[in-house]
UniProtKB/TrEMBL annotation:
InterPro entries named among the record's database cross-references: PP0621-like
Protein name: MYND finger
Organism: Candidatus Thiodiazotropha endolucinida
Source domain of life: Bacteria
Transmembrane segments: 6-23
UniProt KW keywords: Membrane, Transmembrane, Transmembrane helix
Length: 78
């Protein structure tokens, strides 16, 4: 008689695992639209740091991570 309860418990556990699998797959499909969007990044011409283009200091076609690096690069050119 105890063996019957063990089989019923295992069957219920299997149904639970299968249901949880399908529920997680559904959640993953719904979360794909909420993924992080990529941004354009540039590299500082002075130190090589990569940063978002919107945060960079632009001098012509050259990008810097800060005004200090822009000034330091100008001093090196002179």
């Amino acid at each position: 008689m105890g063996l019957r309860y063990i089989f019923i418990a295992l069957a219920l556990w299997g149904v639970f695992l299968i249901g949880r699998h399908f529920w997680r797959q559904n959640q993953l499909k719904n979360n794909k639209s909420q993924q992080i969007k990529s941004v354009d990044s540039v590299q500082c011409a002075y130190c090589g740091l990569h940063l978002p283009k919107t945060e960079a200091v632009c001098s012509g076609d050259v990008y810097y991570c800060s005004k200090a690096h822009q000034k330091a690069a100008e001093k090196q050119k002179s």
